[in-house]
Design brief:
The protein has 23 helices and 25 strands. The chain is of the alpha/beta class. The structure holds flavin-adenine dinucleotide (FAD), flavin mononucleotide and iron/sulfur cluster.
């Protein structure tokens, strides 16, 4: 299992009494894929098995409530609160361990972070009103859950005392106002966590792994200093943990925990390094670890012992195996967009992924029957939807031709990756172009599909993925405006140090504003609706609005434009003078002429992505995948 390319990453490691086959840990991430009654579903098993098959050395199942349902953060959580859950967990453990990975359950209680919809009507608990009997009961719940995990054949448990849940609420002095032995000093505020660790260790013996996720000051508002984080680490080691897994504590800004594209890769490893120097158990840390080279180096330098990969393994479960085989360039990178994974958890749905259409669908995919015969498939359009349809159809054994009108693939990805912090979208485009090549899809560039072309190819099936085009609203004087697409797609059209008015404050309008603000322009966004950036996930939205404050981007909502002159936009609320006027008022599906042609010629076809309904990368991706899978 060694790797020449990344020898440190693929060196065996030790956690407690156990050997881990490499230094790659799947970070705990609530997948919200259970059966709804706390039991483990087939979807959950297939999802984790895929990551084990992909080569992760240890898998931590995130946020397993010790008190079901009062401690639930999400509805489809899987719990260990009772012996009735053991069988499902055993199935999960066996399927993961069969691929050589260890399986750990992260035991937690959401505390006041429990979502009322998930607690079956029970009121979430509050750190400050718990009696000492309540605390004793909760401690026992943790210990019992660990024992059930051991009975189910897991390799260990992790006590979750970070990211704002119950134990983290105890630690945070801004939340914990208790005056007894569980409040006040750091020792008191960590008392429950330490009692839980100690109690679990006593109950499960020395060989079962017991770890903890700990809050680390830099990313939170726990008011913890680095020194205090180190103190917590030392206290937990004394209580009996075999490893420490670092993350943020209690924070009002989610993108600090779940870093968006604006955070530096590996940028949060300084405190774990200090903790590692202070304790004698292995330290695991996350931190936008996307690049095997960086992980390898950080392990070699002694910054951490194990690299925890979260979203990177949602996006590409085979990240470890590809790295091991020195095929890092084949890894499908996570966009750090949070659009499918965390955004879904926040609305209490099972996770999905913008770039990996199989997330949560691994179980069903494995049941799909193989096609009865090889078909010739013509995909029209090389954006996300078309490229995904082509790759999936090719994987199913069909002959696939992808016809793209322009001289490059990617469609809107070529524009979407231009605004600040969207760099991963361009990497994704590059990955797809290489993937088409690896899979052997025949790409025809500068190709406008017409009757002659169809006659020549004679496809059995057509996938229409012609995307969308920007829409120009019928406003008097709109000819003075330039499309945001044209600015993003052409550096020569990018204004600098000008007064810019942007009509339309959706995702494209807001991100174009961010882009142009960085070029010294004075920006005003005019939006017809009462809110801005509709459709953008809540995490990036929070970030972009903070940027607007810093960059002085002015925004007006519920605006009614009456007229545009060559100098100003006239609205019911006043006039907005401009040097450059930009329009970003949405898109309309393209390709109706192709639908007419395909109907006339009586071809069997499916429409995917923006061509069917304007949406996002995740929609284009999943619809392309479904089209490919059903041929
Ligand atoms: C500036 C911008 C920022 C965005 N940011 C995000 C974001 O952050 N997150 C997100 O999820 N989504 C974002 N989106 C939306 C997302 O990029 C699109 O929804 C998605 O890429 C659509 O993919 P598609 O394959 O359906 O269509 P497209 O990307 O439009 O691709 C269609 C392709 O078909 C080709 N084509 C058209 N007609 C023909 C023809 N007749 N013959 C052959 N080829 C043809 C086109 O040249 C193009 O390559 C953004 C879009 C823009 C413009
Ligand atoms: C969908 C999702 C769910 C998460 N759930 C948990 C969780 O249950 N417990 C936890 O400690 N962290 C959770 N996290 C945080 C991750 O463990 C990790 O710290 C974070 O995603 C940053 O690492 P990454 O950049 O490698 O993704 C979650 C993250 C995501 C994206
Ligand atoms: S949804 Fe976005 S952030 Fe989440 S794993 Fe997929 S690509 Fe990464």
């Amino acid at each position: 299992m060694k790797s020449k390319a990344y020898p440190n990453l693929f060196k065996e490691g030790r956690i407690g009494s156990r050997v881990v086959k490499n230094r790659i840990v799947m970070a705990p991430m609530s997948e919200n894929m259970g059966n709804g009654d706390g039991t483990v579903s087939e979807q959950t098993i297939a999802y984790y098995e895929e990551r084990a098959k992909g080569g992760a050395g240890m898998i931590i199942v995130g946020s397993v409530p010790v008190e079901f349902p009062r401690g639930n953060g999400v509805s489809n959580t899987i719990t260990l609160d009772g012996e009735r859950y053991i069988l499902g967990w055993n199935r999960l453990a066996r399927r993961v361990q069969a691929h050589g990975a260890l399986l750990i359950a992260q035991l937690y209680h959401a505390g006041n972070g429990a979502w009322a919809g998930a607690t079956h009507g029970l009121t979430p608990i509050d750190v400050n009103t718990l009696t000492t009997d309540d605390i004793e009961m909760l401690k026992n719940k943790w210990i019992e859950s660990a024992v059930y995990a051991q009975m189910a054949g897991l390799d260990g448990v992790e006590v979750h005392s970070a990211t704002g849940y119950l134990l983290s609420q105890f630690i945070n002095p801004a939340v914990n106002q208790r005056t007894d032995e569980y409040g006040g000093s750091l020792e008191n505020r960590t008392r429950l966590a330490r009692e839980v660790i100690k109690g679990i260790r006593e109950a499960v013996g020395p060989k079962f792994i017991v770890g903890s996720r700990i809050p680390v000051h830099k990313w939170d508002s726990d008011n913890l200093t680095d020194e205090e984080s180190i103190q917590i680490a030392k206290m937990y080691v004394e209580a009996g943990v075999d490893y420490l897994n670092t993350n943020a504590g209690y924070t009002p800004k989610p993108s600090v925990i779940y870093e968006t594209g604006r955070y530096e890769e590996g940028g949060r490893l300084d405190i774990p390094a200090k903790i590692k120097a202070a304790v004698d158990v292995p330290v695991i840390s996350v931190g936008m670890l996307k690049d095997p080279e960086m992980c390898d180096k950080k392990i070699e330098e002694g910054v951490l012992d194990f690299a925890a990969l979260g979203r990177a393994l949602i996006a590409d479960p085979f990240w470890p195996e590809k790295a091991r085989q020195d095929r890092a360039c084949d890894i499908r990178n996570c966009l750090s967009c949070l659009d499918g994974c965390l955004e879904n958890v926040f609305v209490d749905l099972p996770i999905r992924c913008a770039v990996n259409p199989e997330v949560g669908f691994e179980f069903e995919r494995n049941q799909y029957p193989a096609p009865k015969k090889e078909k010739t498939v013509l995909v029209i359009g090389g954006g996300v939807a078309g490229m995904q349809a082509a790759v999936t159809a090719k994987e199913r054994g069909h002959k696939v031709i992808l016809a793209e009108k322009s001289d490059k693939l990617g469609g809107q990805l070529n524009l979407a990756g231009i605004p600040p912090y969207k760099q991963y979208i361009l990497k994704y485009r590059d990955w797809f172009v290489a993937e088409l090549d690896r899979k052997g899809v025949d790409v025809v560039y500068n190709c406008t599909v017409d009757k002659a072309f169809l006659d020549q190819i004679q496809p059995d099936e057509v996938v229409l993925a012609s995307g969308s085009r920007p829409w120009t609203p019928p406003i008097d004087g709109i000819e003075n405006a330039v499309q945001a697409w044209d600015i993003l797609g052409n550096v020569e059209m990018v204004p600098e140090n000008k007064k810019v008015v942007i009509i339309g404050g959706g995702i494209v309008g807001c991100e174009t504003a961010s882009y142009l603000a960085q070029k010294g322009n004075d920006i005003t966004i005019l939006e017809m609706l009462p809110t801005l950036a509709n459709g953008l996930d809540r995490f990036n939205k929070q970030d972009i609005f903070e940027d607007f404050e810093k960059e002085g981007v002015k925004t007006e909502t519920s605006v009614k434009i009456s007229k545009i002159t060559d100098q100003a936009v006239e609205t019911e609320g006043g006039d907005y003078g401009y040097d450059v006027l930009v329009v970003a008022t949405g898109q309309r599906s393209a390709g109706s002429e192709l639908i007419d042609l395909l109907d006339e010629e009586d071809y069997s076809y499916r429409i995917v992505g923006d061509a069917q309904k304007t949406g996002k990368i995740i929609t284009a991706n999943v619809s392309g995948y479904m089209a490919g899978l059903n041929i």
